[in-house]
C-alpha cells in the first residue's frame, strides 16, 4: 500500500513539475503553501518562509514570533541549523578579513546580544520570542552575567584579533550594565577589545538603534578608525550611516529591534 501511495506521489509530483508536453498548464511551483500531499496543514512550511522573511528584512517591526512557529523556531535554535547558519556568516567574514592588509586603525564592530553573547537560555524559558518582551525579567538575566559566547562568533573574534584587527563592541545595553557586560564578555572568552560602547540612555533617549549605532560609528570614524567589518543579529546593527566596509548578518528569529 505504501509503495502504491509513493508511486502516485511521484507521478503527481512529476506531472506538476513538468506540466504537459506543449507548455499548457505548466506549473513549476505547485501553489499549495501550508499543505502537504494529502492537503494537511504543515505549519513548518509557513514558519520557514516567515524566518526567511525576517532574515531578509522583508518582515519588519514584528513584536513576537507567530504562535504556530514556537516549535519550529525552538527546533531551529536548539538544533544544528542555527549553528550552521552562524558558521556560514562568520566564515565569510573571516575569508573577507583575511584578504585585507590590516592597519593599526582598522576596527571590527561587534554587536553584543545574539552576536557576541547568547541569551538563548533566557529565551528558551520564554517561548523563543513568542512572549512579549519583559524588560524586568530580561535585565535580571543580563545582570547574572552568565550569557555564554556564541561559539562561531567567538571563533571569528579570535581570528580577527589574530589578524591584528581591533575590536569594538557596540551594544544597546545601557550604561548601568557596563560592568556586568565587561565581566560577562571576559568570562565568555572575549579577552581584549579597543572599546565597549554602551548606550547613554539620556543622550539617546527615544532614538532607534539605527540612529544610536550610526551616531556612535560616525564618532569612531571621526576618531580616525576605519570600520572594515560590522557584524550583528539585527538589521538595525547594520543599516543607517557609517555601516562599515562590509556587514554580516547573523540569524535571529527571536526578536526585532528597530
Ligand atoms: Mg543583538
TrEMBL record:
<protein>
    <submittedName>
        <fullName>Stem 28 kDa glycoprotein</fullName>
    </submittedName>
</protein>
<keyword id="KW-0758">Storage protein</keyword>
<feature type="signal peptide">
    <location>
        <begin position="1"/>
        <end position="19"/>
    </location>
</feature>
<keyword id="KW-0325">Glycoprotein</keyword>
<dbReference type="InterPro" id="IPR005519">
    <property type="entry name" value="Acid_phosphat_B-like"/>
</dbReference>
<dbReference type="InterPro" id="IPR036412">
    <property type="entry name" value="HAD-like_sf"/>
</dbReference>
<keyword id="KW-0732">Signal</keyword>
<comment type="function">
    <text>May function as somatic storage protein during early seedling development.</text>
</comment>
<dbReference type="GO" id="GO:0045735">
    <property type="term" value="F:nutrient reservoir activity"/>
</dbReference>
<dbReference type="InterPro" id="IPR010028">
    <property type="entry name" value="Acid_phosphatase_pln"/>
</dbReference>
<dbReference type="GO" id="GO:0003993">
    <property type="term" value="F:acid phosphatase activity"/>
</dbReference>
<comment type="similarity">
    <text>Belongs to the APS1/VSP family.</text>
</comment>
<dbReference type="InterPro" id="IPR014403">
    <property type="entry name" value="APS1/VSP"/>
</dbReference>
<dbReference type="InterPro" id="IPR023214">
    <property type="entry name" value="HAD_sf"/>
</dbReference>
<dbReference type="Pfam" id="PF03767">
    <property type="entry name" value="Acid_phosphat_B"/>
</dbReference>
Amino acid at each position: 500500500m505504501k509503495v502504491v501511495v509513493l508511486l502516485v506521489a511521484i507521478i503527481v509530483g512529476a506531472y506538476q513539475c513538468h506540466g504537459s508536453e506543449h507548455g499548457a498548464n505548466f506549473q513549476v511551483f505547485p501553489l499549495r503553501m501550508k499543505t502537504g500531499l494529502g492537503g494537511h496543514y504543515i505549519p513548518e512550511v509557513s514558519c520557514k518562509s516567515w524566518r526567511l522573511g525576517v532574515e531578509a528584512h522583508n518582515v519588519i517591526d514584528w513584536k513576537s514570533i507567530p504562535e504556530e512557529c514556537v516549535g519550529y523556531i525552538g527546533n531551529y535554535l536548539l538544533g544544528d541549523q542555527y549553528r550552521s547558519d552562524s558558521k556560514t556568516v562568520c566564515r565569510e567574514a573571516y575569508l573577507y578579513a583575511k584578504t585585507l592588509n590590516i592597519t593599526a586603525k582598522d576596527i571590527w564592530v561587534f554587536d553584543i546580544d545574539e552576536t557576541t553573547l547568547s541569551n538563548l537560555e533566557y529565551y528558551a524559558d520564554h517561548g523563543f520570542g513568542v512572549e512579549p518582551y519583559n524588560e524586568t525579567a530580561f535585565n535580571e538575566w543580563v545582570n547574572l552575567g552568565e550569557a555564554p559566547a556564541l561559539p562561531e562568533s567567538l571563533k571569528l573574534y579570535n581570528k580577527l584579533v589574530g589578524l591584528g584587527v581591533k575590536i569594538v563592541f557596540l551594544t544597546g545595553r545601557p550604561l548601568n550594565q557596563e560592568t556586568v557586560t565587561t565581566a560577562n564578555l571576559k568570562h565568555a572568552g572575549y579577552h581584549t577589545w579597543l572599546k565597549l560602547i554602551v548606550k547613554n540612555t539620556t543622550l539617546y533617549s527615544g532614538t532607534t538603534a539605527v540612529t544610536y549605532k550610526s551616531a556612535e560609528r560616525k564618532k569612531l570614524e571621526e576618531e580616525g578608525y576605519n570600520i572594515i567589518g560590522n557584524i550583528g543579529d539585527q538589521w538595525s546593527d547594520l543599516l543607517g550611516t557609517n555601516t562599515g566596509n562590509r556587514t554580516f548578518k547573523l540569524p535571529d528569529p527571536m526578536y526585532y529591534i528597530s
